[in-house]
Amino acid sequence: MGLTTAAASILPGGLELVFPSQARAQAQDPLPSWNDGAAKQFILSFVRATTDSSSAKFVPPEQRIATFDQDGTLWVEHPMYTQVVYCLERVPVVVKAKPELANVEPFQTVMSGNREAIAKLSMNDLLKILAATLTGMGVDDFEAEVKQWLSTARDPRWKRPYTDLTYLPMIELLKYMRTNGYKTYIVTGGGQDFVRVYAEQVYGIPPEQVVGTASGTSYGYDKNGRPFLTKEPKLLLNDNNAGKPEGIHLMIGRRPYAAFGNSTGDRQMLEYTKAGDGERLTMLVLHDDAKREYAYGPAQGLPDTTVGTFTQALYDEAKSKGWNVISMKNDWKQIFAWEK
Amino acid sequence: MGLTTAAASILPGGLELVFPSQARAQAQDPLPSWNDGAAKQFILSFVRATTDSSSAKFVPPEQRIATFDQDGTLWVEHPMYTQVVYCLERVPVVVKAKPELANVEPFQTVMSGNREAIAKLSMNDLLKILAATLTGMGVDDFEAEVKQWLSTARDPRWKRPYTDLTYLPMIELLKYMRTNGYKTYIVTGGGQDFVRVYAEQVYGIPPEQVVGTASGTSYGYDKNGRPFLTKEPKLLLNDNNAGKPEGIHLMIGRRPYAAFGNSTGDRQMLEYTKAGDGERLTMLVLHDDAKREYAYGPAQGLPDTTVGTFTQALYDEAKSKGWNVISMKNDWKQIFAWEK
After folding, report:
1. Residues from B in contact with A at Cβ < 8 Å
2. Mean pLDDT of residues grouped by 10 in chain B (340 residues)?
3. Interface mutation target, options B142, B195, B251, B267, chain A, most CBs of A under 10 Å
4. With the C-alpha atoms ordered B316, B321, B326, B329, is the resulting torsion angle positive or negative?
5. Is pLDDT at A226 greater than 60 in this prediction?
6. What is the average pLDDT score of chain A?
């Protein structure tokens, strides 16, 4: 039975091979980076049940909506959200354009490069930095700036582009859902315009399927009379906590059949999804693998964190309500595509 | 050459018939309700050029976005926007639930049934009626109420369901664009939640592809602890004029390649679309057919109106900028599907 896929491919065409060799079985597994276990089985069973037209749990194709949080669910969020790193690293450019900011806090602290002081900035300081680096420019200029930054920035631990830090098992899951007729959406607390820059290339998710924290824009004209949109510091949607189901209603207008998250900010999205009729899949990624990625909770005695907090209360609620917890340590065979 | 399609269908299978009979030519016309003329040719040429991979004007499938205004572009908007009729007709239900409103203006006037007085209500009065009839309820309740109303309400002229008053040539155009890989969106000044109720059934456009004037919702729980969203009187997007390109950026995140409208409220959407690189199709429907539908402008000496105003300035701008004007009278062979 040692027939390899390569050998099979040179057999006369049209023959349906009946020996399910190991190579063949692996090729057919849509989630090869997932260990066999409850999490993988929940996903496979859900997709089978909702796409089999003879099943009582069948979901018509146009209603197949699956929503995914991004930070900590699709890619690494520690030690700091990538978008916040972007904003901090953009400060020198902003200060160069507006030199009067150099002696104004919090810009002065960021420009000092003093990591300890930067880490202690208040939420209010951070909001000032976000406003200065994410608004005030044209939407096309912003897109070009983010694209440029992503092409050169490297994360502090693996020294790789941030877009390399996506989780392979989740990329497989996105593809598997789409292959089965699910429209995949990102529903992120991060900036909608920021994530849209790379979502199509990195996740196969087009801009119109990215729901995120969104500010208004204003329509105007450049000196040549060409119209353009400017990003304004006017918050329209804070896409976190209760803002996630609110954002889903605003941008999608249908309740998802599947939702994936990793922190308390995803609680209401999962609750809202699960409250729909019929079969629903709701899952939370638990970061319990300090060796291959990071470990934080504080659920299950994991270290406490302010970035992507997964409380014990959320863990207990998940267990009691049938939201499935994915253990990165136990459920994922491989975390990143570039690992051996 | 009198071979009919019916006769052809009983010929032995597999034969490619080479006589292009009239029946066959008609079957191949994707826009049979359009008269041959400049408007139809602009559409056919645009689609051919942007979908032919050997053309310099080719647009990759994922970038094919086409946006359509609704009122006056896809369905009848005279003598009054359908959604405003809905709001006025909902007032008795609202007053029954809150009897204290019966003696408060503008509800008292609406309850009087005095059409002349109702027609004279100010914009401010109208906004009070919209707020009372479009907000304060759960999103699922609202959807059920609109669905129920649409099933019984009849328009004053043709005595037909409002959803029968869609323009057949535009329905053909929507299908033709989709067949050629264009993702079709409604971008309407009307309420996003209102239009989403029937857009999939009537236009083949799913809820997530309806962009409209949108209010916020708030996430909460019913007495059984089940989560639901309540429609709040907090405007997030006024999807008219400059609000249309702003709404397109918020909800789609890409500039359309084709945009269709009929009034000054669509001006910026067309301008923004046309300002993109490469080939873009921008068209305005002119209501110049009092006999088969309505005639209003005031462009080209047509009667003036406050519902769907098409000014002479817009007409002149369209002519000077290469936005194509569709004459309902001359370009459309048939207006409604139910006409003979």
Report:
1. 62, 65, 139, 183, 192-193, 196, 200, 206-208, 210, 214, 216-219, 226-227, 229, 236-237, 242, 245-246, 249-254, 268, 271-272, 275
2. 36 41 63 97 98 97 98 97 96 94 94 91 92 95 98 97 98 98 98 98 98 97 96 96 98 98 98 97 98 98 97 98 97 95
3. B251
4. positive
5. yes
6. 92
The β-bridge relationship of strands B227-237 and B210-221 is antiparallel
The gap from C-alpha B102 to its chain's centroid, in whole angstroms, comes to 34
Query: Which tokens belong to A192?
Result: 């909608």
Phi, psi of B191 (to 5 degrees): -70, 130
Q: Which of B249, B134, B241 is nearest to B185 (CA)?
A: B249
- CA gyration radius, chain A: 22
User: Residue B27's pLDDT is what?
Assistant: 58
Q: Which residue from B208, B236, B253 is facing A253, i.e. has the nearest CB? A: B208
Question: What is the pLDDT at residue B30?
Answer: 97
- Ramachandran area for residue B160 (φ above 0: left; ψ -120 to 50: alpha; else beta): beta
Q: Sign of the CA dihedral A316, A317, A323, A325? A: negative
Among residues A290, A296, A298, A302, the alpha carbon closest in space to that of A335 is found at: A290
- Inter-chain residue contact A246 with B196, CB threshold 8 Å: no
Q: How many residues does chain A have?
A: 340
Ordered DSSP codes for A252-305: T-S--SEEEE-SGGGHHHHHHHHTSSS--EEEEEE-B-TTTS-B--BGGGPPP-
Alpha-carbon distance of A296 to A76, in angstroms, equals: 12
Q: Assess whether pLDDT exceeds 90 at residue A16.
A: no
Q: Do residue B208 and residue A139 have CB atoms under 8 angstroms apart?
A: no
Q: Test B219 with A246 for CB contact under 8 angstroms.
A: yes
Q: How far is CA A328 from CA A78, A270, A300, in A?
A: 14, 19, 14
Confidence class for position A232, pLDDT limits 50, 70, 90: very high
Asked if the Cβ–Cβ distance from B217 to A249 is below 8 Å, we say yes
> Positive or negative, the Cα torsion across A67, A72, A76, A80?
positive
Q: Where are the beta strands (DSSP E) in chain B?
A: 65-68, 183-191, 210-221, 227-237, 258-261, 281-286, 324-327
Chain B residues lying within 8 Å of A268, measured CB to CB: 219, 227
Instruction: Find chain A residues with C-beta within 8 A of B226's C-beta.
Output: 275
Contact list, B227 vs chain A (CB under 8 Å): 245, 268, 271-272, 275
> Residue A46's pLDDT is what?
98
Q: Give this complex's ipTM.
A: 0.91
Contact B196 A253 (CB under 8 A): yes
Q: What is the pTM of this model?
A: 0.92
User: Cβ–Cβ of B227/A272 closer than 8 Å?
Assistant: yes
**Residue in chain A nearest B206 by alpha carbon:** A62
Name the least confident of A20-24, A175-179, B99-103: A20-24
Residues in Cβ contact with A227 at an 8 Å cutoff, skipping those fewer than 6 apart: A219, A220, A221, B245, B268, B271, B272, B275
Report yes or no: A172 and A31 within 8 Å, Cβ to Cβ.
yes
Residue A60, Ramachandran bin (φ over 0: left; ψ between -120 and 50: alpha; else beta): beta
Q: Say whether pLDDT at A8 is over 50.
A: no
CA dihedral for A68, A74, A77, A81, sign (positive or negative): negative
**Taken in order B194, B199, B201, B205, is the CA torsion positive or negative?**
negative
* Distance separating alpha carbons of residues B280 and B40, to the nearest angstrom: 15
Count other C-beta atoms under 10 Å from residue A335's C-beta: 20
Instruction: Provide the shortest C-alpha distance from residue A17 to chain B (in Å).
Output: 31
- How many Å lie between the alpha carbon of A329 and the closest alpha carbon of chain B? 32
Residue A9 has pLDDT above 50, yes or no: no
